[in-house]
């Protein structure tokens, strides 16, 4: 075991951090454990929340303390947490072999096919690839590859915990786990969605409108999976307001609900939050050859990475203090710096007067000794603060020169609160990596592109193609922006300045009414009811994620 690696990572980081509320562990154990003889696995048992709930569930089923031995196996990598779990099991007479202080993947690998269970329960760690000790990661990924799965550097460690645990279930086995809601939406989980849909006959996914982990901005779902059942097969999603409603769930009634059929290899499970008619309309639009993706119209790229915004991003006050006028360039770093759908000289000056850090320190790319005295003084200050030692800075020839600085035609929001927006660049600014940069690939009037982006169809698909992690914000990588369908205005009489003014006044519904009527109804011949459905999809999905804000 890589003891020195484990000791250098605190247990929260290594385990992916936070333990499960008892309301969830009790619910999951009640659902999964239905017979007094079932063999139960908890592959990442932490301090024993699930272990204790499983023991209590067996006792509800009439199992005496002296008959519990051999029914439960808990595995935990962190020694201190494993000891806590052993202590909790010991309260009910279980000896220390019930809990194993080990790496789950090595445990399964060394079992030579003998480890099989009737039930798997748990809350697997949420740990990114680079934070998981390599020797454990290699074993996990090798086991996935033997299952004809294809993990990569984007794969979070909850994925191998989920699929490898599932593979160790007996016939008619059940898996019940707390899983990040990104299962529904991230690309790296697409293969996992396909695996689950094929491996399990019936899946019920319980979601929550409110965040249920108090300390983290992470949306989770309860994944309830059953092997080899023959009745009411398929995938169903049940949305609850909060944990207090768990006890009111009647699973048998849920199983009788209609199943929405998705193409798991190409469609995100976000669509399970939609009605069947909404799903069918989106499919029809996706196959409409008249409507091209944004990639036909624009290239989307990340903004600059300064390496130390504290040093490089300057407010009016700091520019004055260090006498750096003439040695800066315009940069946008936050979405609230944009008020409309065009960023003008006037907008920039307003942000300067608000003392926002919208000026990037950018002297000539010369050796330090050849620079003006005021620049040398500021760079010396930066070195006194050791800013040059950060990774992004120290790999540069001149650490104080930010690379890849170019002026885009427009900006598009990387993180969306209320609605997506494309902003024309009329002031020769660039942006940091919190805002994506856009180059147009066509000769279409840029104002038409910015107007076209503000329609209910594009908004609806944005909610499907983006990713929301729990705090209410919708996040996009450049490639995800490029996938969004964008019907384009051609001949029209929409006043660009009027729309820009309405956006600055935050009157998005009025804007959508104007553009939907001209673009979707008049030009693309969508019916009023279809446009209403698209508007409803956007409102439903954006309302759902914004409802999870603290």
Brief account:
This protein has 550 residues and is of the alpha/beta class. It has 22 helices and 20 strands.
Task: Write a structural description.
The chain has 550 residues and is an alpha/beta fold. It is 37% helix and 16% strand. It has an 8-stranded mixed β-sheet, with helices on both faces. Strands 9-18-14-16-12 form a 5-stranded mixed β-sheet. Helix 7 crosses helix 8 (158-167). The longest helix has 19 residues, at 528-546. The chain is globular, with a radius of gyration of 27 Å.
Helix percent reads 25-40%
* Straight-line distance between termini: 40 Å
The overall strand count is 20
Total helices: the number is 22
Overall morphology? globular
Task: Outline the biggest β-sheet.
Answer: 8 strands, mixed
Rg from C-alpha positions? 27 Å
Strand order of the largest sheet: 3-2-1-4-5-7-6-8
Question: Uncertain spans, ≥5 residues at pLDDT below 50?
Answer: 1-16
């Amino acid at each position: 075991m890589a003891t020195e690696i484990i000791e250098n990572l605190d247990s929260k980081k290594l385990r992916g951090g936070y333990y499960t509320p008892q309301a969830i562990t009790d619910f999951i154990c009640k659902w999964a454990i239905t017979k007094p003889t079932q063999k139960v696995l908890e592959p990442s048992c932490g301090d024993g929340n699930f272990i204790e709930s499983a023991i209590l569930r067996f006792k509800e089923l009439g199992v005496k303390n002296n008959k519990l031995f051999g029914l439960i196996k808990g595995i935990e990598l962190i020694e201190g947490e494993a000891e806590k779990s052993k202590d909790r099991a010991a309260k009910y007479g279980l000896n220390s072999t019930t809990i194993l202080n080990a790496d789950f993947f090595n445990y399964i690998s060394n079992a030579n096919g003998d480890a099989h269970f009737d039930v798997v329960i748990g809350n697997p760690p949420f740990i990114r690839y680079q934070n998981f000790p390599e020797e454990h990661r290699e074993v996990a990924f090798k086991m996935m590859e033997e299952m004809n799965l294809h993990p990569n550097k984007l794969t979070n460690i909850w994925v191998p915990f989920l699929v490898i645990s599932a593979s160790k279930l007996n016939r008619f086995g059940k898996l019940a786990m707390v899983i990040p809601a990104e299962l529904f939406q991230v690309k790296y989980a697409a293969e996992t969605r396909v695996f689950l849909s094929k491996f399990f006959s019936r899946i019920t996914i319980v979601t929550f409108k409110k965040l249920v982990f108090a300390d983290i901005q992470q949306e989770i779902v309860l994944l309830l999976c059953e092997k080899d059942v023959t009745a009411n097969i398929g995938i169903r999603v049940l949305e609850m307001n909060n944990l207090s409603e768990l006890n009111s769930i009647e699973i048998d009634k849920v199983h009788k609900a209609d199943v929405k059929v998705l193409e798991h290899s190409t469609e995100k499970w976000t669509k399970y939050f939609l009605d069947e008619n909404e799903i069918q309309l989106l499919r029809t639009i996706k196959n409409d050859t008249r409507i091209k993706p944004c990639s036909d119209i624009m290239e989307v790229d990340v903004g600059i990475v300064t390496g130390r915004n504290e040093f490089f991003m300057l407010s009016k006050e700091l520019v004055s203090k260090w006498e750096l006028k003439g040695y800066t360039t315009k940069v946008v770093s936050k979405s609230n710096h944009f008020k409309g759908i065009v960023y003008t000289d006037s907008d920039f000056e307003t942000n300067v007067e608000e003392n926002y850090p919208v000026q990037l320190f950018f002297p000539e790319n010369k050796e330090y000794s050849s620079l003006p005295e005021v620049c040398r003084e500021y760079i010396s200050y930066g070195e006194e603060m050791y800013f040059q030692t950060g990774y992004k800075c120290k790999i540069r020839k001149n650490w104080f020169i930010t690379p890849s600085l170019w002026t885009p035609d427009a900006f598009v929001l990387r993180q969306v609160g209320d609605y997506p927006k494309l902003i024309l660049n009329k002031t020769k600014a660039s942006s940091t990596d919190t805002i994506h940069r856009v180059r147009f690939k066509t000769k279409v009037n840029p104002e038409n592109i910015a107007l076209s982006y503000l329609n209910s169809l594009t908004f609806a698909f944005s909610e499907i193609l983006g990713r929301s992690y729990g705090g209410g914000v919708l996040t996009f990588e450049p490639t995800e922006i490029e996938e969004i369908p964008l019907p384009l205005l051609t001949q029209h009489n929409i006043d660009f300045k009027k729309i820009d003014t309405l956006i600055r006044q935050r009157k998005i519904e009025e804007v959508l009414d104007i553009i939907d009527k001209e673009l979707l109804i008049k030009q693309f011949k969508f019916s009023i009811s279809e446009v209403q459905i698209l508007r409803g999809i956007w409102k439903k999905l954006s309302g759902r994620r914004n409802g999870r804000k603290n």
